[in-house]
Amino acid sequence: MRIISKPILSRAAGVPLSLNSSFSRNITRALATGPPKINFNDSETAFKAKSFPALIRGYAVFRTCLVRFLVNNAESMIRQSYIFLGDSITDYTLRKTFFGHFCAGQDTSDMGPTIRMLESAGIGSILDYAAEADIVEDEIRPLTPPEVQ
């Protein structure tokens, strides 16, 4: 039996070893000490690591999410933006607003500063690889359990 000393998920996700070893130390420390005692109901604690522009962006993003028309038509509006404004302007705008608020980054070099900022505030990070694809309705088939033989 072969024992793997590094977390498999981190290497599979392409996380550099510097983040990988930091991740391992944090997991070991968290398991030894238990979860941190952070009160997210205390606004000073919850927002102290955020810059003023990041707080304004968050406020604007969440206020925009309250507008039902924008939420219901977001996909169509983004598609139209790609057509009329082009890829560069649309991607830049999304990166600086919604994507920037909800995601740490597009790759490991983008994520590093966010992970370090959260870590300095005593908040851990969970890295998740999101792979998405558009599926044509004809390609969807119901899941059936495998036959028992």
TrEMBL record:
Gene Ontology CC annotation, any one: mitochondrion
UniProtKB keywords: FAD, Flavoprotein, Oxidoreductase, Proline metabolism
Transmembrane regions: none
EC number: 1.5.5.2
Listed InterPro entries: Proline_oxidase
Main enzyme class: oxidoreductase
Superkingdom of source: Eukaryota
Essential cofactor(s): FAD
Record bears the keyword Flavoprotein: yes
GO BP annotations listed: L-proline catabolic process to L-glutamate
Catalytic activity: L-proline + a quinone = (S)-1-pyrroline-5-carboxylate + a quinol + H(+)
Molecular function terms, GO-annotated: FAD binding; proline dehydrogenase activity
Task of the protein: Converts proline to delta-1-pyrroline-5-carboxylate.
Family the UniProt entry places it in: Belongs to the proline oxidase family.
Name listed for the protein in its UniProt record: Proline dehydrogenase
